[in-house]
Amino acid sequence: MGDPGVTGATGATGVGISGYAYAGVDTQTNISVTASGTDIQLYSEEIPSSSVSYNTMTGFTIYETGYYFIQYNINLDNFIGANARMILNGTEIKKSIVTGTSAGTTLNNGFIIQLNAWDVLQLQLFGVDNSVNLMEGDGASVSILRLS
After folding, report:
1. Strands (E), 89-137
2. What is the pLDDT along the chain (148 residues), one digit of tens a residue?
């Protein structure tokens, strides 16, 4: 073998993850859904970071302004016609809305959004007045990744 060649130029840096949070419900939980919206309390498991924290009463609090990837999953034990969405400071995030269909009992979505320090996010079911059970295992969860 010959001598090593010249080292090339450093490539561009890509998008990384500089903060995160996760919260979920892993036990079967009954929720009374209202047409105007019912927050899902994610109390079974919480993984906060310095960028994002979770509180069952208020939701996710963002501590650093930036772009975030948000993904949620809701697994229901029966179809009730409910829809799902994320709420930002009391207002729905349009691109987060998933309309329930008779084809399944899973509602999930992922999207990128710019958030500011002290913004608050909540996961909701809405659109019907009915009761539903979250499935055991991953009944509902939210993952938030701060993109750098």
Report:
1. 91-92, 106-115, 120-126, 130-134
2. 677 778 877 766 666 788 889 999 988 889 999 999 999 999 888 888 889 999 888 899 999 999 999 999 999 988 788 999 999 999 999 999 999 876 568 999 999 999 999 999 999 999 999 999 999 888 999 999 999 7
